Each structure stands twice: as structure tokens, then as C-alpha cells.
Amino acid sequence: MAEQRVLEVDLGERSYPIFIGDGLLGRPELLQPYIGGRQVMVVSNETVAPLYMQRLLPGLGDCQVEQVILPDGEQFKTLEVLDRIYTALLQHRFDRSCTLLALGGGVVGDMTGFAAASYQRGVNFIQVPTTLLSQVDSSVGGKTGVNHPLGKNMIGAFHQPRVVIADTDTLDTLPERELSAGMAEVIKYGLINDAEFFSWLETHIEGLMQRDKALLAEAIERSCADKAAIVAADEKEAGQRALLNLGHTFGHAIETGMGYGQWLHGEAVGAGMAMAAEMSLRLGWLSEQDRRRVDELLEKAGLPCRPPEDLGVQQFLDLMAVDKKVLAGRLRLVLLQGIGAAVIVQDFPPDALEATLGAFQA
Amino acid sequence: MAEQRVLEVDLGERSYPIFIGDGLLGRPELLQPYIGGRQVMVVSNETVAPLYMQRLLPGLGDCQVEQVILPDGEQFKTLEVLDRIYTALLQHRFDRSCTLLALGGGVVGDMTGFAAASYQRGVNFIQVPTTLLSQVDSSVGGKTGVNHPLGKNMIGAFHQPRVVIADTDTLDTLPERELSAGMAEVIKYGLINDAEFFSWLETHIEGLMQRDKALLAEAIERSCADKAAIVAADEKEAGQRALLNLGHTFGHAIETGMGYGQWLHGEAVGAGMAMAAEMSLRLGWLSEQDRRRVDELLEKAGLPCRPPEDLGVQQFLDLMAVDKKVLAGRLRLVLLQGIGAAVIVQDFPPDALEATLGAFQA
User: How distant is the Cα of A298 from the closest Cα of chain B, in angstroms?
Assistant: First the structure.
């Protein structure tokens, strides 16, 4: 039986719905009310386009529909590749009433969103995320952008979509490793402020990893709702939104240190959460039992619980200092005072950080 | 006697002051209240930096001040050159509380503004425009961006500065041609909706071209006020703001057709306004006498009153069709129903446009 949920992200005049379920791709009634103008540029990549483009197109009606197919991978999330989207828009004479639609994972979504934010100083944006990670992460928050050789996601803008369509059917073809990577973000929402959801995940992790559609839809909706609650209260990341960086400061250091594309973002976040849990344990905030629950759930989700051994303590510290969560030279970390009780910490003993990094070198 | 005027641009929580006068550069009390954080990146170009950087720096106090010096010219307003700003910010480990300061003309302002809009999804921005054009145009409206090989200003964002400092002393070194180019925008404000200002300009054009500081300050303030009144009512260019494009649709076609950097923007706008006046005359909206007043003031300001002869009618039409003012494939033009009475026109006889373009081919 087809499942369809809808979650409204409340951002005043920029509010938008997220449709979640199976069989959603290509349904005109979900797409057409949100298309501005008569021109739609679908941006996808070489992996996703052959799988889902034909299923999507009927939903776009009789607009002028053009396509840009990007190479697949985080290493292509650059200004140079972004320029291909601008070029296609200009070659097809798209005007400022046009719509950009992202069909793909986080990389496609981030790049398409930034192209939409910056083409003619801002045009309409629709997201059709096709990975678990992008369904639970990119769907909410309006963050768009590209990487720079000196840092991840350093160039970008806040730009909200007009609608998000998360079709769980697209997860059928998702590689196992990417399913795990998406699950890292799902687990993150439980860890931040939803202990009940964390317990639900512990109960259902096997079914989720077997891609049970009903369980996936529930996990996606709950993740988006948890994220939306944080984002709606704090759209510009002045305060509480930083909680969403749980596992990310460590994780970005791993991604940058290993070179983009070696570790999946979610894998790095998984290891990053394990590191945050370890540091929280060392500060006496998290019990050994809860630390073990974190590691066990990560493991059942097929995620790494430790950083790669190639990264030394000093290299880690260097990498973390250019992370964009650094405020005026002072490192902020998101740590755990319990499962479902994350906190933003700026004043921590530097020893604790180094000891934590050292613990994983063993 | 030093002159100092201040104009408040009213944009709600993003309101900011424009300081106008001589001797303003390097005055800490005008700059420091508007610097966020402790890191300032001054972006300038090879022409302006040697002239005014040393005068500016004392105003920045004891922040971490770094510089990026770009090559001078519209042809460098590209994604590639923009990337140098991002690289400098990352190399110096600037965080998201930093401030970008543009010291230079419109190109420096547009690029620095877009870098500020997009670095870590948005940081503080201060503008110190050093050309007449940028003092009257870029100071108000929040438009930032770069060019694309297929179109001018096609990539960008709206990003408001925290303060603008328009020091008329910097106009001492401005080449004659650029003074004229700036005067084109000044004249534009009179033409759009300020007939009294247009008359004032007819009276004072000689003094202005001799760079009388008091007259320049008055012209800058009045231009900024006229623009701010339009922009404040319509920050996102849904309606009235399009009036500011008077002369620009024709002008952009000239700039693009000739290749960026051949004609100055203001020169192209000057010719564009003469073309708009000619078309308005042909539609029976503008008297021959008023058309002559437009041409005479443009001439006294040292501006061209006609497009370059190399551009044919068809080439013009092609170039205008990719202009970003094209809404859903229909060309919008700003024309004159009198001096100080500009209107946005979408339904005009195509013949009138072609006849106007043809008239300048003779």
C-alpha cells in the first residue's frame, strides 16, 4: 500500500511542504503547484538520472524542461562544476522566473540550491532528494553551497526550496554504504534531543537496514520534524541550530584530511558522533553504558565508530581550526550530556580534546 | 570646510547609513561601529589600493586586517577572480563573524559583496566606493554578483552592507571618462522620477564636471536618496525597482555586444538612456524638446548619445533577449513619458523597437 506523509516546514512566508512516501515521483499534483514560471531546469547526476529522470518528467507537465547531468561525487561539488549549471541556464535563456529542480543526493541538492540562490540573484528551487542522507538532512534548513579546496561547504547561501519530495522508492537502488551514511544523520537527531526516537531506532534498526518502506518513511518524517523544529526556531544558525553539527566538526576534519570523496559524509559523521560520545564520557557527562549504546547503534547501522588511523592528533587539531564552526578563533563542539541531550560547548579543557583524539590513535 | 552628510537607508533590521563628504576615509568613528568580529578583509584593486589603502587602514583599529588586491577591470568580474577572495579568506582562517570591506569601484563592490553574501553563507559587508558610479549606484540596493561569459551580472545575491562611506576626495583621481560614466547614473535618477533634480543638474553640470566637492556631495546624496526611496519600497525588484533599469537594457546589450570592458557601464547606460528617449519620442510620449534636453545633458556630462555603429539591429535584438530583465520571454523596457516620469513597458509595438534601433544605424 502506498504511503504518503506530509510535513510542513514553518518558516513564515517561506514555509514549504515535505512529501514523504513511496510512488511519489512523477506525480504532477505534488510538483506543479510549486513550479514558478514556465521553465524548469532539472539538475541530476550520471548515476541518478538514468534511474529516475524518466519517472520524474511526467510530473513537470508541459513546461520547457531542460537537464544538466553532473558527474557523481563530492569531489565535483566545486565552483567549476557549478558553472555548468549557470551555463546551461543561460544557453537555454532561462529567466528569473524559472525553477531549478534537484534530482539526486546531497551534492546535487547543495549545488542546485546554490545555483538557484545565485542565478540572477535568486530563482525558484525544488528538491527531489534520492538518498536517505539528503532526504533527512538537505530537506530542511535551506543550506546550499559548494566546497573550496581549502574547506568544505565554505561557499554558499541560505535558500529555501518551495517543496521537497522524498520518495522512498529511490532508496531501492541506494548502495548499502550510502544507506548507512544516511542513517548516521537519522541517529544524530535521536542523539541531539529525541531520546524516544533513539530508542525507536534501536528497536527498528534491522528493519530500516532492510529498507522497510513504512519504517523508512517514519524515520525520515521524524528526522525532518526534529530538524525543522530546531531550524524553525533559529533559521540563521545563531544558537540552537549549531546542535545539528553534532559529529560534524570531527567529521569534517576526517573528510578534509582524507580528501573529499574518500569517506562518505555520513560515515565521517558517524565516526564524529562516536568521538563526541568518547569526549563526553571523558568529561564525565555521558555514562559508559550510554556511550556503548551509541557505538552499538552506529555499528548496527553499518557505520564506523572511529576515525581513520592515518590522521594524527596534530593534523586533526589543524583541520578542526579551519572548520566553519570556529567562532572568532575559539572552537565550539557539540557534545552529549546524555542520549537526547546534546549541548554546544565552547569552554572545554583542551586536554580533553587532545586526550580524546589520542584515544583513537591506539 | 569638510562636508559630511548622512543618509539612512531604511530596510528594517537591515537598515544602514551612507556617509557622504570629503575627508571621511580612515575615520574610525565611521567604520568601527560597523565591523563585526575581529577580522577584516579589505578587497581592492591594483589601481585604487596604491592611492587609498593607507588612508583607509587607520580607520580599522587593531583588528586582524588582511588584503586582497584584484586586477582592475570589468573583465575580471568573474567566478575565477572571485575565487581569489575565498582563497584569501580561507588561507587567513577567517571565520563567519568576519567583515569584508570593498575599497574601489563597482566591480570591487559587486565582487566583494557577493563574496560576503556567499562566504560561509554570509558575512558582514562594508562598502567604501571610490568612483562616482559606485557611490551613487552600488551604495543602495544590495545587488552583488559577477558576470558570466554569456551574460552580465547573471550570478549574484542580494546582500546589504552595514555601512557605506562615500568619500568625495577619492573622486580627485578618477579619470575623466569614469566621472562621466558615474554622471550617467546621476542623470538617470533625475530622468526616472525627479524632474527638479534633473533641472538642478542642468544648472550645475559644469561645476560637477569640475569636481566641486559640495556639488558632488549634493548630487550623490540626492541620487542615493532617490534610489533608496525606490528600493526601500520594493527591495526584491518585483515592481517599481525595475525603473532603475532605465537605459540598462539597451546599455547591457551594448556592453555584451562590444565585449566587457570596451565601453564603461555608465557610457553604455548614457547611450541606453538616449535610445530610451528616442523610442519614447517615436511612441509620442516624449516631446522633441525634452528629448533634446536629455541629449544635451548627456553631452555636457561627456557621455555618448548613441550606440556604437558596429552593432546591427538583429544583433541588438538577440542581445536584449538574454538580458535578465526579460520576464518569461517578454521584453520589458523602461521608457519616458516625460522628464522625471519613467514607466515600465511590456506591451509596445515591436516595430517601435526596431525602428529605434534602426534610427541609430544611420
Answer: 30
